[in-house]
What does this fold into?
Amino acid sequence: MKKIKRMFRYENVGILFVFPAFLYMLVFVGYPIIRNIILSFQDVSAGNLVRGTKSFIMFDNYSALFHDSIFRTSLSNTLRYTILCLVFQFMIGFILALFFNQRFALAKPIRGILLAPWMIPVTVTALMFKLLFATDIGVINYILRSLHLINKNIEWLTTPGTAMFALICANVWIGIPFNMILISTGLTTIPKELYESASIDEANKVQTFFNITLPLLKPTIESVLILGFIYTFKVYDLVYVMTSGGPVNSTHMLSTYSYKLSFEMFKYSKGSAVANVLLLILLVVGIFYIKVTTGGEEE
Amino acid sequence: MKRKKLIALFAVLTMTAGLITGCGTSGNTEESAASVDEGAAGEETAVDEGAAEETASEAEPAGEAEAVTIWYYWETEGHQVALDQVIQEYNSSQSNYEVSAKYVPFADFKKQLSIGASADELPDIAILDSPDHASYVEMGIFEDITGKFDVGNYYEGTVNSCTVDDKLYGVPFGVNCLALYYNEDMLSAAGCEVPTTWDELMTTAKALTTDSVTGLALCSVQNEEGTFNFVPWLWSTGATSYDINNENGIRALSFIQSLINEGVMSKECINWTQGDVMNQFIAGNVAMMENGPWQIPTMQSEAPDLNWKVTLIPKDSEYSSVLGGENYAVISGGNVEGALDFLTYATSEEQVKFMMDKFGYISADKTIAANQFAADSPYQPFVEELNYAMPRGPLAEWPSVSDAISLAFNQVITGTATPEDAAAEAQATIDGIVK
It folds into this structure.
């Protein structure tokens, strides 16, 4: 009885408040993850999904993956795609944020309108870009031809290299507003007095940027990049709609390959092994993110 | 102090309660999302289903009508309406069972069945793509219905697709196959005869290709749909689905590659579904296409003035086509009695005729198919083509074999491998599956 009383002491009330959320996470996030890890150590296919024994083969699925050339392509594709997308959407987003931070008429409404790509459902964006990049009827080829930059239509989505480029373009377009808005918000937190005193000390624009803006934005930039990494790394819908991993498996990502293995080819265990590789990488990034953000608060 | 604790406890309780109700609502949104999907595919169906629900609630107090659920993947509005009409008539004809149908998009169908199987949340009847049938039989979710239906009159290939180890695990719904559509005006303008061999096809396609028109199109996406469109060319050479790395298999791959290299078929075909191919054909961008009879109702309503005809797929050494269509399967552990009762009704001659007519399908029952169409009907060439049509599989590992075949064709179309290398790679994969 005393123990129960102690549990309800005021200092411990916080735990009770956290408890529902914890329970929710346990059931809807924890359970599927653990189940998926177990599945990846078993040998489950169409034959024994419902009935029969599910034998444990431990790391066989994982070692099979590293001999699977499509898996290796998916892994390198996902990394390449994430890094290239991050670089471009961050740089362009940063420049736009700085631009709209200037005080001029319509700066705020235009910045709001620029958010549209972020709000459009990804499948819609994907279909739009699929049409833009179409070989014979695509607007991009039409423009390039009208400008006499090319004399033969480029087969964007049907050639392995350019299909990846098209995917990156589409995702950068989606990602720019996200980066822009977060950096804009970060910019408003920098006290104006700092810029005023800098101008009294006759610092030029470049000096102000590197000595005031950039250092003070560091926590924002870290969050933007890490969140961007997580969002980009788990891409699925964009690729599924635009290329479905094609042509000839050249644009498969970890997510699309995992889906294909599990639900198109009935190789459930191998598919979940791919999903776990994805999870593991994101987990490392996630822990890094928590370290960075909580570290910042303590300072 | 006591009061504070109580308040805290109360707060926690409300939050937990909120959690539970929260789950309930999210379940509901899922369902309503599904019905939005249906709405997008065909508003009329959604309305009809609303009516179905009403009748259900009316029937409930009166009796013990047991629910029988069906999953299907037809997105065409006409298909949904026709199926719904049969269900309505069945429901009002008896009071023991109340049948309802749910649309699951084709892309999600296999996934939903897999998830449903492991979560024990399956319908009572699934209407599924015939090449997948064997995989689900192996999964053990289909009821053995040997002797419950007379399939003696059905096309052999369709019955084979739902037979495993001499046991019947399904009833063919309807049958279709691929044939060659051609734009008659374009053909006569170019002064061409209807092609019957690959050489003639190549010459005709070249003659028909202009700046704005490509001679031929066939759906070449890298999945089962693509495989469906590739195998007639493969089989026409004498190669089988499991034996590709030989002179015949390589000849089939080379022929498709030459269509691309000669510019008579667009590389974009690897991103075109069969529906996209049909749209290109009725838009006049394509002069000939490989496609199935289910496109005919849409083509007739979308492009009534287009002058087209259907003929056999040109041959290399023998005429060949591929058998498609859906099978009914009864899920074991569900309402088996009710499912069988509905299937007996739905497979009766009158109902079959009605649905086949609305679907643009050919009946899997040979006797019905023989008299189904008039001699000049555009469907008639498909009935003839059926004599040369063979099924894919049946094999539990068919999805993996299919993946190897569609990959090989995609490799030669995109030029990422020579026909020889593509054939060798596909063979290596297939040998690893079929020992």
About this structure: Chain A has 14 helices and no strands.
